[in-house]
Amino acid sequence: MKKEILIIEDDLILQKTIVDFLENSGFNCTKANTITKAKEIFDKKFYPIILLDLGLPDGDGLDCITFIKSIWEDTGVIIISAREKLEDRVDGLNLGADDYLVKPFHLSELNARINALLRRNFHTDKIKINFEDIEIDTLDRSVQIAGEKIDFSKKEYDLLLYFIENENRVLTKESLFEHVWGENSVFMDNSDFIYTHINRLRKKIKTSTGENYIKTVHGFGYKLEIH
Amino acid sequence: MKLLSKINRTYFKYGLFVFLIADVVIILMSNYILKDEMDQQLKMETEVIAETVRREGNFHSVYPTDIVEKISYSEIGIETSKDTLLYEASEGELTPYRECTVYKSIKGKHYRITTRQMLMEFDDIFSLYTALISTVLGLIFVLVLLFTQKMNAILWGTFNKNVELLKNYSFSSNEKLQLNTTGIDEFDDLNQVVTSMSNRLEKDYRASKEFSANAAHELQTPLAIIRNKCENLFSEKNLNDETIQSIREIYLSTDRLSGITKALLLLAKIDHGQFNDTEEISLHQLIQLRVENLKDILQDRNLSVDISAAEDCLVKMDMRLASLLIQNITTNAINYSPSSKIIEIKIAQNQFSISNYGEKPIQNAESIFNRFYKESESSKSTGIGLALVKKIADHYGMTIHYNFNNCKHQFTFSLSLC
Questions:
Q1: Which residues of chain A lie closer than 8 angstroms to B385, CB-CB?
Q2: Is the pLDDT of residue B164 over 50?
Q3: Residue A86: is its pLDDT beyond 50?
Q4: Does the beta carbon of A57 lie under 8 angstroms from any beta carbon of chain B?
Q5: Residue A110: CB partners within 8 Å, gap ≥ 6?
Q6: Beta-strand relationship, A49-52 and A3-8
Q7: Residue B266 and residue B259: Cα distance in Å, rounded?
Q8: What letter does residue B75 receive in the DSSP assignment?
Q9: Quick one: pLDDT at residue A161?
Q10: Which of these, B290, B281, B361, B404, lies nearest to A188 by C-alpha position?
Q11: Do residues B107 and B55 lie in contact, with contact meaning Cβ atoms separated by under 8 Å?
Q12: Which of B277, B287, B409 is nearest to B348 (CA)?
């Protein structure tokens, strides 16, 4: 059973880019580019995840949140907006949104946020994540490799989870830096930093599995894949 | 200078001038009138003496005021009135007298009759009149002052109210500027000019605010598209090196562009006073938290941060701006510090400083806070982090002082104490 996602975004190209990406990741997407249209859609059907842009042609997406939540309490709302979180005095999170992504975001980041939100809201959903003989338990944030519990630091755990959730997809140094350390590479140089941490993670995995799953993609970044 | 004191001052200056002229004029005039009066008096006295001589045949002279001398016919002259000086034995000095001399022929005899009266000394007259005039003018001055103050209160009252309104007027509040009519044409003209000017400015202000918000926001969606398209391209197979390099550069430039527009929008928003939720913040805590978050990055570059706090530095700021400030100065220190060195943060009451090692002082220290200023061509900085820092510092009246000694760049922030 595929997870349903409703995307409320007025820019059609961005909408399509997000939809293509999410369909690839195994979600079913429904699109709306105005508040009016979106209301018609989620009035009839429950969506576990709604992606919501704020600057819409027929109003501010912020006004939607309470409305969505009043109909479907369990719907997870992720705001995708150019507005910085800190700019909004009453930001979406206070109005009941579950997460907030500032444009331009990395698609891999969006993917990670959606999964995290699904795990938070629907506890049965993917509590344990498997990749080959690696198993991540997201509840107690532990990692088992081939049935044996391996100690991972918080950051290593975050890195590994991010890689596994975005399997076969290239992750840039910039997106890793932002996702795990919350720093923007535009303002802070990350050149060797990410490399060091990836290497540490590789070593840990290799020691336990004998495999090197994290490949360097020349010029772009890294990706996790099976040979 | 206040208008009223200006008026009073001018009034005083001219008053003094008028007073001096008046003094001189009055003294001269009264001198003339007095002498004229005296001459008549003396003349009358000679008549009285002549009458006495006619009645009694002789007159007992009184020196020096009433003197009758018999003279021969040939000595008869013309009547005179003049000032003269006589030696006064009792005073031991020459004293001014007015004297009147007439010649009379009574019963065939000829007489010269001289009457004199002591003159008041000029100095005495002067001081008397000066005192008199001063008193009168002083009285007038005080009365006029009271009067103008009363007038001022009436005339300027509304004007002053309007000035207060203008002082408290700001674009960020949504209230329109409403000035009171004063009923005085000049003031009302001024009101009209000021009102229309403020309306124009407000319009410009709103337009620029809108522009910066729109520019920053509307850019982010296309940037998101570029970035995501690039990400999708990363997964393409069989790209040649040149294409890879190009895509990577497009991707990085997108990041930069996004970072710059966001920072510019922030700068504009701080200017527009959109961050005004003040709370008391412990900078010590904020800095510790920041350093904790940077732990991995510091470790990686083999940097250590040494925080010494003699006292906590408590600031009243918007939390978001305080975080931004600390974030940017720490990022800056880490970016420019050579590896395996110490970054020192010193916190004291109303002051904090951060320093990192460097080889040579910044060449144009006054320019480093300018937007898009880069110290060197090769530096990867966006040139906006420190501009943000400066903007936030200015917003809260902090001063930033840069110095370089013992191979350390040091930025010291001092809080304004008001």
A1: 187
A2: yes
A3: yes
A4: no
A5: A18, A21, A22, A51, A78, A80, A101
A6: parallel
A7: 11
A8: G
A9: 92
A10: B290
A11: no
A12: B287
Contact predicate A177/A141, CB 8 Å = no
A128 contacts A138 by C-beta, under 8 angstroms? yes
Tokens of B92: 């031991």
Suggest the residue from A13, A24, A103 to mutate for an interface test with chain B (most B CBs closer than 10 A).
Answer: A103
Got the DSSP string for B291-308?
Answer: HHHTHHHHHHTT-EEEEE
3-class secondary-structure state, position B237: coil
DSSP B62: B
pLDDT digit string, tens, across residues B378-387 = 566 677 888 8
Structure tokens given for A154? 């918080």
Q: Which two tokens stand for residue B143?
A: 């009365």
CA distances from A80 to A176, B101, B143, B254, B277 (A): 19, 120, 74, 18, 25
Distance from CA of B346 to the nearest CA of A (A): 23
Which residue's entry shows tokens 């124009």?
A: B200
The amino acid that residue B384 corresponds to is I
Q: Decide if B357 contacts B404 (C-beta within 8 A).
A: no
Q: How far is A34 from A57, CA to CA, in rounded Å?
A: 6
Q: Which backbone phi and psi does A133 adopt, to 5 degrees?
A: -100, 20
pLDDT in tens, B90-136: 777 888 888 889 998 888 888 888 888 887 766 677 678 778 877 88
Closest to B408 in 3D by CA, of B309, B338, B328: B338
Find residues 231-250 of chain B whose CB sits inside 8 Å of chain A: 231-232, 234-235, 241, 244-245, 247-248
User: How far does chain B reach from its first CA to its final CA, in angstroms?
Assistant: 25
Residues of A in contact with B261 (CB under 8 A): none
Distance from CA of B402 to the nearest CA of A (A): 21
